[in-house]
Design goal:
With 217 residues, the chain is an alpha+beta fold. The chain is built from six helices and ten strands; from the N terminus they run βαββββββαββαβααα. The structure holds adenosine-5-diphosphoribose and magnesium ion (MG).
Amino acid sequence: MANAQLSRAEALACSGCRHACHVMLYSDTKSQLFGRTPIKHIILMQMRFDGLLGFPGGFVNQSQERLEAGLCRELQEELGVTLSISEDDHADARYATGTNSSPRLITHFYVKKLKEEQIKEVEQASASTAKDHGQEVLGMVRVPLYTTKGGGGLSSFLSHAFIGSARTQLVDSLLRLHLLAPEDLHKALKHSLKTHALGAVDLQAALALTEAKRDHS
Ligand code: APR
Ligand code: MG
């Protein structure tokens, strides 16, 4: 089956496969947007060097290090903090689609719940002591889980461009961990498709702007 889910053990049994590990760090929060909209949960993602949204983590050489040790090394580089991620935090593994990489790439996804203070420490370190800040990682971002009066918030966030299966991993985690009601997520995704279509119109306008400039240069 295409892109079928693998257990951690099945993934490790693949000879000659490359492995990449990423993690969703999240916490509960009592804070409110504009003092009235509950934020409920803080979920950390990052703006990557390639302009795509993704989760922190990266390539692990599993012949030299355990998956979780490699993930922690990547987190040290990208976030500037030492976190302990264990096999129990492993949520998903599958063959990466849409990459022509050879040997085949297996992407592992972990989920780790932290305290709100720990999330804030990660955010601070990632913008100060993290080695990759401003290079491989352009900045950490929080996922807005609410919907604004105009329909924005989560729906606008989901309409951005994501690396690999990061958007699916996010949506799947929201459902599995009961961080959002399925009907709210469904509504947000439907609105997202509309936002995406409007975005294409906006892009056309921006393109026209550069074409006009090119014609005059
Ligand atoms: N879901 C599925 N696949 C993913 C996800 C995800 N959420 N996130 C990343 N990937 C895939 C991408 O194909 C990516 O290229 O895993 C690969 C490795 O993940 P990265 O986080 O990009 O790897 P990292 O070790 O942090 O560094 C990237 O790769 O392209 C080079 O030179 C570049 O130094 C850079 C390195
Ligand atoms: Mg990375």
